[in-house]
Amino acid sequence: MANIAIGKLDFPKVSEQPVEIVERKGTGHPDTICDALGEELSIALSKLYREECGAIMHHNVDKALLIGGIADPKFGGGSMISPIEIYLTGRAINEINGKRLPVEELAIETAHKWLKENIPNLDVSKHVIIHPKLKPGSKDLVELFERFQLKGEVPLANDTSFGVGHAPFDDIETIVYEVERALNSKEFKKEHPYLGEDIKVMGVRNRDKIRITIAAAFVDRYVKDVDDYLNKKEVISNYAYSVAQNLTDRHVDIFLNTADDPENESVYITVTGTSAEAGDDGQIGRGNRVNGLITPYRPMSLEAAAGKNPVSHIGKIYNTAATDMAERIVSEIEEVEEVYVYLVSQIGKPITEPQVCDIKLRVNGEIKGLEEKVRKIAQEEIDNLPNTWQKFLERKFRLY
Amino acid sequence: MANIAIGKLDFPKVSEQPVEIVERKGTGHPDTICDALGEELSIALSKLYREECGAIMHHNVDKALLIGGIADPKFGGGSMISPIEIYLTGRAINEINGKRLPVEELAIETAHKWLKENIPNLDVSKHVIIHPKLKPGSKDLVELFERFQLKGEVPLANDTSFGVGHAPFDDIETIVYEVERALNSKEFKKEHPYLGEDIKVMGVRNRDKIRITIAAAFVDRYVKDVDDYLNKKEVISNYAYSVAQNLTDRHVDIFLNTADDPENESVYITVTGTSAEAGDDGQIGRGNRVNGLITPYRPMSLEAAAGKNPVSHIGKIYNTAATDMAERIVSEIEEVEEVYVYLVSQIGKPITEPQVCDIKLRVNGEIKGLEEKVRKIAQEEIDNLPNTWQKFLERKFRLY
Amino acid sequence: MANIAIGKLDFPKVSEQPVEIVERKGTGHPDTICDALGEELSIALSKLYREECGAIMHHNVDKALLIGGIADPKFGGGSMISPIEIYLTGRAINEINGKRLPVEELAIETAHKWLKENIPNLDVSKHVIIHPKLKPGSKDLVELFERFQLKGEVPLANDTSFGVGHAPFDDIETIVYEVERALNSKEFKKEHPYLGEDIKVMGVRNRDKIRITIAAAFVDRYVKDVDDYLNKKEVISNYAYSVAQNLTDRHVDIFLNTADDPENESVYITVTGTSAEAGDDGQIGRGNRVNGLITPYRPMSLEAAAGKNPVSHIGKIYNTAATDMAERIVSEIEEVEEVYVYLVSQIGKPITEPQVCDIKLRVNGEIKGLEEKVRKIAQEEIDNLPNTWQKFLERKFRLY
Amino acid sequence: MANIAIGKLDFPKVSEQPVEIVERKGTGHPDTICDALGEELSIALSKLYREECGAIMHHNVDKALLIGGIADPKFGGGSMISPIEIYLTGRAINEINGKRLPVEELAIETAHKWLKENIPNLDVSKHVIIHPKLKPGSKDLVELFERFQLKGEVPLANDTSFGVGHAPFDDIETIVYEVERALNSKEFKKEHPYLGEDIKVMGVRNRDKIRITIAAAFVDRYVKDVDDYLNKKEVISNYAYSVAQNLTDRHVDIFLNTADDPENESVYITVTGTSAEAGDDGQIGRGNRVNGLITPYRPMSLEAAAGKNPVSHIGKIYNTAATDMAERIVSEIEEVEEVYVYLVSQIGKPITEPQVCDIKLRVNGEIKGLEEKVRKIAQEEIDNLPNTWQKFLERKFRLY
């Protein structure tokens, strides 16, 4: 039995406190691009390893660096001047039983594939250079992986680390998340191809007023001139408002691309739909947490989950597990209004034996009667940790 | 007058909650190295710009990537096999009035200097390759900087962003911070040169039991054999215990290098004193927050302060200001036991006009009578924001 | 009037000396790839500059480095493991009248285009990483270029340098050149897609015996097994023999892929048709001279023509001009059997005023009566040097 | 017995022909730097391999790329702005019996050492970035090397290739070589520290007039102003003249830094003594041949010897052997005035069994009587080829 502590959330709801701040960096933000490429590479490596030897072998490709390019955006269509460079870094076994594996090729291919699908105005053949910088890593770890994966042993925690999660999202969290998702949905883009993917949403609530500040890159070839830009900006702004207003009873204001200076024709247009084309750099782990948000009024882990190996990396598994557990508790136990989960590992111990699983509840009534239910869910989730890797491979978590 | 909200911390102290987690990545940790090199480069650039034109010009060198090398540590002294590579990335004006400035040379020189002073067993001439990858950035920003710096205008916030801070440190926070500082102090190192700089301290409190888990790299040429290692490990462990025990009434256990397997001669020795030599990569912004700690039970910002320009970068200025403000309030107003500060900027507005400055107090008695004092300190700190850059140049903040 | 010296070739013909050695590195050889990419980039830049400001601006992109990849070729089709990396280096103006030009994008695009057309089994999207490393170079040179190109002045020699050429090819030179051209022709490849582009031909004549040693990469997916390989090898060998035998009365032997060891299934198959995929690196200027051959028994310049600017770079212009002049003299003056031309520049003087133009003739009869005709052709060619750039842009020279 | 052909040089001496061109790129020329670093790395690797396993293992580090930096030279002392980057590329076994060897560290260390000793005004810690890009290469070759080195078998030629050499140097060859050597001698530098190492000497003889054009970088911190520069330039020019005049009876003119424009203060000063600091790139194999010169009127090989493995690489061994053989024949057989040697290998055959060794003599009298002596020397040199590697390790050849 895991060491599960169940307690009370004994402070007012964040959503009832006077101020709240929530942020989400959308698909095309340089940090999100790095997260995505790291995670996609981890998935691709995991699949390659499973094909080659039936097991996911050691890898941690959780460091990436995107160096912004130079672009010359213009109404009607400008051009890239100097390409974006992306370093994909970390450890990945590149030889199994004497056979050299194409980990670098895979890194390039996977990155191109994700970029093509997700940043369609970026021409991967010439606007971006992928530098795969992968080293094989320690041989000891290979043996460990074989034990876990091939013989079915429970993986051991690779570190003393922790994960945190909370549920449910409150109104401003939901708004920030859903506004970005709506603006970056395939359906919306089909109708509004002039909207790029680099969409950053920052929500600040001041008592009952919610200000949603959006920085969204437009794609120059779909915008004729400043007037056209301003018209399209209003369309986007209105749509964001409609999405947001549906999710709260509070007053919402939308501020879109506030740094624009239309009189000087200085507005936020890009060639590719992402600010990575000119000036903005990115890294893994500098953006959204595993629940898709940045929430300074909530407990957060600094762990970067993207790119880490899904079998034994505590920072990846415990954060997603804590979030999952919180969501299950809230959805399955009616009386629970809100829950925070903290999971702390012990290095060298099975991942199913955390130092502590600290669960804090906000309930309608007494905690007492619910403890067993909560504990049951928690234990199930913990017992299930050795299978979490499958969910990562199926992209079941938000993760970034 | 700034929009200052003063409220109550209406939940039990973190130190009285059943579980608490605190972490600190020491000087030689790959993430900390990246933070340090980014920040040192920002300081060096700021000084260069001031010499060249009397003002700090635009720069943000807040992205760095350290790719671990390959090493062959051995008792008595091993060797590096393949060097560490460090990419220093970002924007930095490299031309003023037609004169090309040596920003790349400065990056290399500054990095070498810091590494020599702080990781003395690393031979910078051959164990590390510095890749300066700096681009000049936008010309618009240059004009802005001239206005702020040469004409004395208050800088405008470059982003909608926020900073958070709290004070004072509780016992486990103090322990985690001070144990690393003690082990990495020049005095201690003089007596114990076998201890490297890559020291990660993780504290987990479970009610009244504090477990301090330390991962500390030893330097191979000062360690004769396994027995010698084990003896020296005990010395370190005992010293860490003595430091920690003095800072709390709770029960403390020290766990040092728990992954060691001395029977197989597998212990944590390194050639250089940092795990960056073999296997561990690093980035800016993935380690300690501006107060020197990672504290998932406290509000945290994900903003990386290191390397950002100290004049108008909100993510840097507001985080340090919030921490400073919190520390002043606690130290100057006796009745305040604890304080959390949140500062939120408005993009395009003067940095002295935050959207909100949210201050939450835990007081001995009523808040009412203290509000004016608190507001006064807050306003002073806010008024003083345009001068914060000087403190960055003088390394007055912990920052990482 | 240029300083034209006309003399006699007073030694026996190379083709009548007992030994002769001639070599050609074919299209897919790593050195030839580098030459081609450098030259294509120079052409693309020249066109870009002409579009942007009506003149070819300063550039010299005559340094390139190809770092071979890692491949796993297999009968029926293997795979690339780690990509080829190509650094394209040199100087190229990247800003005209304040407008930043896309020189890096152009480098990538041009390289991809050439590779796709010439090494069709290489998938440029993932088997190769292009690193454009271009620096703007000196501003003084920009002004010079404007004078030459916009005002029609005769360019000044950028260096004290020289060019050499000879005509006609003797039998073994013709064989070495034509065998590679035949094997790499589109028509031949259509019928024989299993033959790659990396074809190196070395001819050694020992009195009247000519040994043609060919190293030719096969493409694995078109070859079933060793037997199939050996059959196809015979086809190629026979074809090379038929091409060669038609070009000489001497005895010819063909040796194809002599390092093969078919019993151990060790034969020269590749995934991509070039040895660059695994093991072989390349550089500009290490392969064929501007006449397409390496001829140690003939005078040679070490100058790399590929990638140099076509307006004023002596090393490029004089070598092609000397070859051209030699070919014209031989073809237009019946009595001339053979000619060697040496052109030496004076740095800072117009390119139409060489220090010396040294012409050595082998004639049927007396030189005397031919001198005027030779001088006329030479003077015409020299007068025409300022227009040579057009021929480079139209790819009128062999060049590599 | 080797296939040795002995014939007659049946054309007038080059030194008696009307025109002759000879060039030498001095120590600090970017191409020479590349040659030197490649060769020094080969020597260092050879020594490392011998220490580790008693034999020189496979390596070919004969590709290098130097990308020029940016500098701001000034009378009295300027500064570097952006560093020189040097890629050292090729193949080198990096693991022997499971032990990883520090080939990258060695590359950095060796490069720094050579640069410090030979370009003293270059601060290797910040003016230059060394990128070691070495790949392990083929395993088959390792076995071959073990056979040659450990079991004493004669190495097999790795390629069909050739080497050429001639002796003795004529007057202009001697002048070009000795002028550079004199200007770059330690003794001369001690007295004249203002002279840099990047000294290119081009000699053009027009009948009995020899023009020596020298481009020589001056070191800015040792030069006060233009007048001082002009004075020092005269000193150098006079010294070069005195060296040259002693070596010929012909008329000699010295032209030093002819592109200088002193009225506009545009003269050839540098911070570091090499043009690599700003603008000039370099590669291996683009400069001097193994005899230290570039001689278009003599037979030349395009083979780059620098960096190649000294055990079995024909391009390296045969070129130096041909030069050596030519020098011995001339010095040991009084009647021989001049000799050209061509050596052609057979791929896969022992290096002591060339396809042909073609020796052409210019003698005072009849060849007949000398043939035996010549053949004896040639055979001795050929028999001795398997030991040539020792001379490379002892730097017995000029090589560049």
Walkthrough of the structure:
Four copies of one chain form a homotetramer. With 400 residues, chain A is α/β, with parallel strands linked by helices. The first copy, chain A, has three domains: 4-13 and 159-169 and 287-394, S-adenosylmethionine synthetase, C-terminal domain (GMP Synthetase, Chain A, domain 3), CATH 3.30.300; 30-151, GMP Synthetase, Chain A, domain 3 (2-Layer Sandwich); 171-283, S-adenosylmethionine synthetase, N-terminal domain (GMP Synthetase, Chain A, domain 3). Chain A is 32% helix and 26% strand. Chain A has nine helices and 17 strands. In chain A, the strands form five sheets. In chain A, strands 2, 11, 12, 13 and 14 form a five-stranded mixed β-sheet that branches. In chain A, strands 1-17-16-10 form a four-stranded mixed β-sheet, with helices on one face. Chain A starts with a strand and ends in a 7-residue tail after the last helix. The mean pLDDT of chain A is 93. Chains in contact: A-B, A-C, B-D, C-D.
Task: Give descriptors for this structure.
400 residues; GMP Synthetase, Chain A, domain 3; 3 domains; five-stranded mixed sheet; 9 helices; 26% strand; S-adenosylmethionine synthetase (chains A, B, C, D); AdoMet_synthase_3 (chains A, B, C, D); AdoMet_synthase_2_family (chains A, B, C, D)
Oligomer: homotetramer
How many individual helices of chain A?
A: 9
Architecture of the largest domain in chain A, according to CATH? 2-Layer Sandwich
N-to-C span of chain A: 31 Å
Structural class of chain A comes to alpha/beta
State the name of the first-level CATH class of the largest domain in chain A: Alpha Beta
Q: Nearest-angstrom radius of gyration of chain A?
A: 22 Å
- Total E-strand runs of chain A: 17
Strand count, sense and barrel status of the largest sheet of chain A are:
5 strands, mixed
**What name does the CATH topology of the largest domain in chain A carry?**
GMP Synthetase, Chain A, domain 3
Q: What percentage of amino acids of chain A are in beta strands?
A: 25-35%
State the CATH superfamily name of the largest domain in chain A: S-adenosylmethionine synthetase, C-terminal domain
The low-confidence runs of chain A, each spanning 5 or more residues with pLDDT under 50, are: none
Instruction: Give the overall shape of chain A, derived from the CA principal axes.
Output: flat
The tally of domains of chain A stands at 3
Approximately how much helix is present in the residues of chain A?
A: 25-40%
Along the chain, the helix and strand elements of chain A come as EEHEEEEEEHEHEHHEEHEEEHEEHH
Give the mean pLDDT of chain A.
93
Largest interface: A-B, 61 and 61 residues
Pfam families (chains A, B, C, D): AdoMet_Synthase (PF01941)
Protein name (chains A, B, C, D): S-adenosylmethionine synthetase
Organism (chains A, B, C, D): Persephonella hydrogeniphila
